[in-house]
Amino acid sequence: MYGVTTYISLIKEWSIIIIKNFFIDKKVILVMGEYDQNGKLFSRIIVEKTTLLVDRPPLHLLDDTLKYIGFDLRGAIAGAKYILNKTVMCPIIVNPYQSVCLFPSKSPQKQDCIWFNPDHIVKTKAIGNKTEVELSNGHFMLFDAKLTSFNSKLQKANQLKRLSKERGIQASSLLLYLEPPKKHQFLEKKSGKYNFDILEEEK
For residue 53, what are the β-bridge partners? Predict the structure, then answer.
């Protein structure tokens, strides 16, 4: 798994399914790139105790998921950079309706980048200059990065989830009133215009 050492041989133990289309949801633990024998880039996905091979590169898979619900990857990246005031290796909200966030282990342009779901990281600890990551499915990964570096990325992902949720709730609060709004009937005037100006008179 491109620089990742596993304590258990996941590929041998779990079933392998190759599928054409896949949309990321909250059950996804991680996503990473994997080349076949012909040099074609697929996405290796771990969902609970199953590993799937999807016929799409990781970044295309993220974009597919976002477009399916009316967004896109470019916008998700731009939004994350704005919220976090961060320019490189930003986590992104992949599905705002399910609060699914993924963060890259390194530059997303590198073939050995792994996209982790912070909700499925149970615990991390240092093993020398590497980081042991305990996943929600009971398995462990030994990741080639210092604990402080990995935990910083994890913290940024959780921060993005929290801030985006808070801002989403605050945006809707503009529709709340301290007292019930008055109801009006809009009538057509002799001029042919409606009396919408009655709303302005209330201010």
Answer: 18, 44
